[in-house]
Amino acid sequence: MPGASVPETDRRFMAAAIRLSRRHLGLTGTNPSVGCLIVRDDGAGPFIVGRAVTAIGGRPHAETQALEEAGEAARGATAYVTLEPCAHHGRTPPCAEALIACGVARVVGAASDPDPRVSGKGYAMLRTMGVEVVEKVLAEEAADLLGGYLTRSMKKRPEVTLKLALSADGKIGVKGQGQVPITGEVARGQVHLMRAEADAILVGIGTALADDPALTCRLPGLEARSPLRIVLDRHLRLPAGSQLARSARDVPLLVTAAGDADRARRAVLADAGVHLLGVEAFDGHIALPELLEDLAARGISTLMVEGGAFTAGEFLGEGLVDRLCLFIGSREIGAAGIASPVDPGHIPSGFRKRCEARFGNDLYLEYVRA
Ligand code: AOF
Ligand code: ZN
Q1: What digits encode the pLDDT tens for the residues 11-68?
Q2: What does the alpha-carbon distance between residue 49 and residue 65 come to, in Å, rounded to a whole number?
């Protein structure tokens, strides 16, 4: 049973399993990044004998790796899993079967799996074989990190995170001035971490032209975790000399183009190694729901939208933002600034605050769909 009746030890180990699951966010393809701990208690207190996170690429799953590490020590132990163990014969045999075969006595699970091959069946298999099962321990916390997988499974589109950096007076930049410093180094590091954990990052062509961003993750040691970069650019205005196009052979770049986009421009970008994706447009607006469906079909589960005001407004207006992350700096920009599409004093209805933090001198506010 969830809630206060769950022993503190279960909550503590599940929290550790959830932290572990974060390690492969953005690296497991269409499979969720699941964390698993095998814990035994021989009377002198619990200790971890196996730990694993879903492998890069999505397989093997977390449980089988953790069981392998535990070996014989798994017999009579408790397994903590951030997602219901799978029950299907996919490319690997069911994890529920592996837990049973290794003699695990108890399974503590967090989030439920909407995959119809698994949903409820993993727990049922375990119970049938006499394994004690406790469900929904820190389910919300686990689901928070599984948001991409859960959204893609249930809505057939990626989970969309809108990130905005705001000055103290609610501006996101200055027209004609390219990138203007709004937040500090610590906040910048957080943004790059968000990029590392996302499958894809998207901006509108206005931002691509004005800021000439790279949209890569440049945290030392995490450079290889840059996500797929996407530019909404119906008329293919992105210059071949832009940072985005110049780096397209190192970090994939997808540019969305209307069917009637100029053929010569197509050739220039394709020569630079840019991938082009056809999009539909209505009244001059890219059809975002259809685009998101296409991205989900390409295996994208999490999409970070980084600007600018117009693109952010389009996603918000269509109700396609699942997570709203505001980094608020301490300096003011003044009347020349571009107004933020979101006023921290008037968060759009339907969102609730998930957390509030400080990164250096900057305030961080995160909202999720209620
Ligand atoms: C687990 N542990 O670590 C993960 C699970 O294509 P397959 O065979 O790899 O199966 C994919 C499904 O497995 C996926 O939809 C989800 O239900 C589950 N992912 N399950 O027991 C794991 N990553
Ligand atoms: Zn599995």
Answers
A1: 999 999 999 999 999 999 999 999 999 999 999 999 999 999 999 999 999 999 999 9
A2: 12
* Ligand 1 shell residues, CB under 6 Å: 31-32, 34, 54, 58-59, 61-63, 83, 85-86, 90-92, 95, 113, 115, 118
Say how many domains are in the chain.
2
Q: Which atom of ligand 1 is nearest to the CA of 32?
A: 23
Catalytic (active site) residue 63: yes
Q: What is the mean pLDDT of residues 110-130?
A: 95
Q: Whole domain around residue 326: which residue ranges?
A: 157-369
pLDDT band (50, 70, 90) for residue 4: low
Ion ligand 2 — residues with CB < 5 Å: 61, 86, 95
DSSP letter string, 251-275: S-EEEEEETTS-HHHHHHHHHTT-E
Pocket test for ligand 1, best of 33, 61, 108 (most atoms within 8 A of CB): 61
Q: What is the reported pLDDT for 1?
A: 46
| Distance from residue 118's CA to the centre of ligand 2 (Å) | 9
pLDDT digits (tens, 9 = 90+) for 341-350: 999 999 999 9
1 within some domain: no
Contact 367, 203 (CB under 8 A): no
Residues 120, 222, single domain; the answer is no
